Amino acid sequence: MDMDDLSSILALFERNVNKLQSNLTAYQVEVDTVRRTLEQSWSHVGRSDGRIISLHDGLLSSVNAVNEYMIKLNLHINLNRSIDILKNEDTKPTKHYNKENNTNLDSIELDVHSANAKLDDQPEGCALQLITPKNCSIKSNQFMYDMPTSSTPIFAPIVLPIPPRQSKLLAPKGGRQMSANETYDQLYKNIGSFVKSSVVQVTVMHLNIAENCIFVAKWAEESMPVKMLLAGQMTVQMLDQLPNFGEVFAVYDAQERIIPRVVINSHAEGGGYDAYLLDYGEHIHLDDEEVIFAIPNEVKLLPAEAIRCHVRNREVASMCKFTYKKVHLRVLVNSGNDLEVEFLDDGSPEIRTSSSKSIEKLSPEDLKMLEPVDCGTSNALKAVLGYIPKDDQRICRHYDPKLKGCFKGSNCRLLHQPFAPHGATKDVELVEALPESIYTAGAPRELGSIVRVLVTYVDSPTQLYAQFIDEALPLVWSKKDVSESQCNFKRSPRLLDMVLALYNDDCYYRAQIIEEIDGMFKIFYVDYGNTEFVTIRSLAQCSDDISLKPHQANNCFIEGVKCSLMATQRQSSECVEFLKSKLLNSEFDVMLISYLPDGYLIKFLDCYADLPKQMIKRGYVEPTTDNFEHGENI
What we know:
Blueprint: H1 3-42, H2 50-82, H3 180-186, E1 199-208, E2 213-217, H4 224-230, E3 237-238, E4 248-251, E5 261-267, E6 273-277, E7 283-286, E8 292-294, H5 297-300, E9 307-311, E10 326-334, E11 339-343, H6 364-369, H7 380-385, H8 391-394, E12 450-460, E13 463-468, E14 477-478, E15 498-502, E16 507-517, E17 520-525, E18 531-534, E19 539-541, H9 544-547, E20 554-558, E21 561-563, H10 569-583, E22 587-596, E23 599-604, H11 611-617, E24 621-623, H12 627-633
Parallel strand pairs: 9-11, 20-23
Antiparallel strand pairs: 1-2, 1-10, 2-9, 3-8, 4-5, 4-8, 5-6, 6-7, 10-11, 12-13, 12-22, 13-20, 14-16, 15-16, 15-19, 16-17, 17-18, 21-24, 22-23
Helix pairs in contact: 1-2, 2-10
């Protein structure tokens, strides 16, 4: 293969990338439109309305299918990067965790007209400063490094997007390497504006889950030059050599089309450099192929916007949805380097570090489940433990280990054993034993065998749930079979709990809790494969002997077809309805082709053998060349 072949492949790659970006953007717009339609109609349209249910199921299956593709695509990209097929490491700021389509410039208000006012002129001999840079008359040992002054840099306007580099960057000439924390500590930051006990509005720029802290920025009027740099509205000078360790410069993020300030702190293991984004609080990796710029000194000397905060009343892992959004914080401690803050409610449900709810927020249903508790008690043990231990009434205080009894002899009716150490109790709470019956899943079915199935749910154009006819009958209970005591929970059901759920046919079926938000439970019917949102009033407790029985809904993928990248959401919904009209609640024979990580690959037989061809002809799906490809694209 010569360079012409490589150029053709790269050109095809660029076209596919552009096409993928366009399709993803259009798909996001369609998904957002359908979601808004569902939100507007869901509250005042009955759940029995087939159009709304079909729209909901179509959106769910479509997004699930796209997620599967994106997971596999990201996996393949990471695998190719890990074997050095791609040399560029990810140099862009942390991507968004929240569902909405935010960008790195969200919540950063940019007013170009008000940004024309110049800052105080600064000499050009200054790099990243350790001490507050009031002026540049401070001695050089107060700065990290001196920037070369042999020639005045020539700054020019930026035209976005910026094409990739054609040559590699030269290595830094000098400077002192520092750790990640030392880099942050030495930076001059805008931390003086965070007054203790005050409430401030900030933008969450980065979540450091590993160190359980967040980075926030105020983005005040003084930050306008930094905003203009991010938006590419400032004159800069492109560099062909990486600046010294500790010098502030700018790097171009091609995906977000922003230009953030950055500083290199050390060499990275495995090659490249570890760098820190001053205004995001994120550590990134740089190599020798980025597009970098020298920036004016007045922008370089501005304080770093990212301030490290330790949140007392919220777990950082639960704050992903606030990335690049404005929030309110109460400053508890300002150490001069970082902050301790309290996260204030911004209209979103708080996810507190404590797992218990406050009494004021309990619903009437939750209050009914609480056992009656005395308003107060003078007994310290009952106040702490919730009950009074009976050790003193059961165990003899005169017990002598040498005698294995007490001086009363056989006349003592108390228990002769030592008390628990450190004042603990030996009281034991008896619980019901697990059922004697042991339920095990059947042996794996032989590949190539023909089995009879009953289709219970169609999940997507390539996926359905079915029951094997030769297994035990599905479990179902009428309202009379479920006692009132089963409907009263001592505690609210938790994630992955097995329950009995009341369906719209007034019968109870086994289900598993897979999500809980604001008192609504998302459940998965383990014997049928469909999901539903219900309240606790539609649930009942499921005993162990019932919950331990094997789930009878088998996840099956249709052999010979895969989801079409060109199919619209409407076509996917039509395909699901088409399959429902042909397969739902029908019994027929299928052949087991192969095992997949989450189910079986099946082949339709007899009168259903032409069904995949009909789906392909209608443009709902695409054919696969072999079973392996199908397994990779489901």
